[in-house]
Amino acid sequence: MSWRDHPFWQHRQLLGVLALFYFAQGLPSGLMAKALPALARDAGMPLPHIGLLSLAALPWALKFIWAPWVDRLGAGRANHRKRWVVACQAAAALVVLGIAFVDPAALFTTHFMVLIFLIGLLNLACATQDIAADGLAVRMLTPGLRGPGNSIQVTGYKVGLMLGGGALLIWVGLLGWTTTFLLVALTLLAMLYPIWRFPEPAVARDPGQHERLDFRAWRRAIVRFWGRPGMLWWLLLLLGYKVGDSFGSRMLKPFLVDAGWSLPQIGVMDLSVSVIGLGAAFVGGMLMMRWSRAMALVVFGLLHAAAFVGWAWLAVGTPLTWQIWAVAIWEQCADAMATVALFTVMMDHCRARHEGADYTLQASMQLMAVGLFSLGSGFSAHWFGYSYHFLLSAGLCLAAIMAIPVWWHFRRLASTPSTLHGDRPQ
């Protein structure tokens, strides 16, 4: 087979635009998950308040409510979901422009609720963009390309995380608050041109999509999705698989600040380990083409649990710089591969013509779980100390893995070989 016949080459435009979609989501996510905790702690914000910043991520947990309308409005026409992506990304850029002109000193002290509101608006725009982007990805990626496709997704997302997290910390120190956020807004706007040029084909509408979408129809759709055999076990796994990561990683930056690291030091390390994580995401996607879905979830989950055991060990004493770097690299690689595995299996569970709503429903349920644990992460670190907090995070990672064998049993009964092992025959 020549290189021009390889699926990657044949789908290069799709994979490229997916990378842009998820890069745009990674920018505000990096701000929320990586930059804000460090900036807030550096400004003297208490740990419990840093945990409460997760309230601004509420739209990600609730997006399943309006996801069916994103699937329905404009369905069947060419560029249906692309129009949603462009509109929401433009709205996100406008919110970032607003953040650029607000005094950061006030945001982290007296205007705490204004900070929550602005970041909440940003998350609302990005969460709605995510509904459309996920629907397009699930619809256009074949089962065999979902592993590599999710590598592209995670890679794009992590590049956005790098710029919105570690790089943003560096830029704030060098360029100042206003200039940094103006650059972020301009980056979001500049990406709209190649996204708009992507030709999303039309698709025949599902006859059921002509029905009026009201609360009863919305509820029936959710019941039908979760009512399939084995789906309750998948729900249990979905809810628990990433809570340990969210619970533990929320306190990593405050831990480094309290350990004496400066914001530029944290930014450099975060940026560097994120680059290494990009390679891990690619490796995870390639392994997904060879391994069963269950094996990938177990192996990557165990690696993630081991990473938080490493953070707990570092929090006991006075770790050396190279030790912190080593554990940070391990944790970033485990996170990237586990995320690829989880997103791939979420795609496998989506139904035809309901891709955006089904994927969003799963993502929302997962984000509700991780969000609740994130809210309590600051209290846990404050009450128990960083070491026991990270050990608890590792335990949560291990607990979720216990649901995989039962879920896999039902999945094998209900699935075709293509959704278990990509397009590789069993």
What topology does this entry show?
Elements: H1 7-10, H2 12-42, H3 47-52, H4 58-62, H5 67-72, H6 80-100, H7 104-107, H8 112-140, H9 146-164, H10 166-175, H11 177-190, H12 192-196, H13 215-226, H14 231-240, H15 243-249, H16 252-258, H17 263-288, H18 293-316, H19 321-348, H20 355-384, H21 386-401, H22 404-414, H23 417-420
Describe the structure.
By secondary structure, the protein is an all-alpha fold. The chain has a single domain (8-196, 223-420), classed as Growth Hormone, Chain: A, CATH 1.20.1250.20. The chain is 77% helix and 0% strand. The chain contains 23 helices and no strands. The chain has helices at 7-10, 12-42, 47-52, 58-62, 67-72, 80-100, 104-107, 112-140, 146-164, 166-175, 177-190, 192-196, 215-226, 231-240, 243-249, 252-258, 263-288, 293-316, 321-348, 355-384, 386-401, 404-414, 417-420. Helix 14 crosses helix 20. It is globular, with a radius of gyration of 21 Å. The chain starts with 6 loop residues before the first helix and ends in a 6-residue tail after the last helix. Mean pLDDT is 82; it is low at 1-10.
Short description:
The protein is an all-alpha fold. It has helices spanning 7-10, 12-42, 47-52, 58-62, 67-72, 80-100, 104-107, 112-140, 146-164, 166-175, 177-190, 192-196, 215-226, 231-240, 243-249, 252-258, 263-288, 293-316, 321-348, 355-384, 386-401, 404-414, 417-420.
